[in-house]
Amino acid sequence: METASQLAVRLTKQSRDQFWNVYTEFDWPDSLDADRYAMTPELISIHGTELWESLDEPTRKRLSLYEVGNFFSLTLQGERPLVAGLSDRLYSKRLTHEGTEYIHHFIDEENKHMIMFGLFLQKYLGKVYPEKKIALDRTYAKGEEEVAFFCKVMVVEELGDYYNVKMMLDDAIEPIVKQINWVHHRDESRHLGFGRRHLTELTEQWMPTWSDETRAGFSDWLGQYIKSSWNDFYNPTMYKDAGLEDPYQVRKMALAHPLTAEHRARASKKLVNIFLRLGLLLEAPVL
To answer: How far apart are CA 7 and CA 31, in angstroms?
Structure first.
């Protein structure tokens, strides 16, 4: 099997071959078409619920704009600490020379993604939804913090890519949204490949040194982190912006609905299976 360093050499070449300019890649329309969905309907957080069925088409389409705005905001906010963490690892003993060379491209592409999402959000929503996660100090076993960082990277990128692929193939949604999702997936497919391989090597290096208590604690933390990440998809502010009544009750209903739970499980399947295979999750979390 290819090592992370060997994979990094291939990915560096691909990034160079597909190098792009975020300021010339897109032709931004002056406004979006209110008669089109901005997000694939099946990805909308209340899709399939009784509330969704009660909404008329104009309201559904208006909600889709704020839903894709929330999704792009989550992706942007998730990439900020990712870039900071990757920058901290440049030219350190934690990465090989080949890995460091590829991380330069990784950071460059993530920075372009933040610009890309920021341009969309400011132009069509006039804001970026703020981050809701709170960082808590904790004590780590040797290697645990490094493994945790790349697990966070995987959560942001695997869940996001599920949405990217659905929307980049949907000709019915806003063309600019379709294109943004395609561009993001094109880069993220490389990031995901490197992240999976690197996380596997980190796990093989450090997990055998952890106590059973550390492994169990890590599994609990990771399950809660995935669940917390999903909770952010049900943002009461976006419901309010779309004109839905009682947005906090909408969030509570949507999180508890069996159809949305099925969606979260389906979208998380690949991610959860990776963590289960590596032993980072001891059991699949209830999402």
So the answer is: 41
Q: What is the dihedral of CA 276, 74, 79, 267, to 10 degrees?
A: 30
SS3 call for 170: coil
- For residues 176 and 168, what is the distance between their CA atoms, to the nearest angstrom? 10
pTM higher than 0.90, yes or no? Answer: yes
CA distance 185 to 235: 24
Output Rg (C-alpha) for the chain, integer angstroms.
19
For helices 212-231 and 258-278, give the axis angle rounded to 10 degrees: 150
Mean pLDDT of the chain: 95
CB 184 within 8 A of CB 160: yes
- The Cα–Cα gap between 210 and 208 comes to 6
Q: How far apart, in whole angstroms, are the C-alpha atoms of residue 41 and residue 16? A: 35
Query: What structural domains and CATH numbers belong to the chain?
Result: 4-12+37-278 (1.10.620.20)
pLDDT band at 135 (very low <50, low <70, confident <90, very high): low
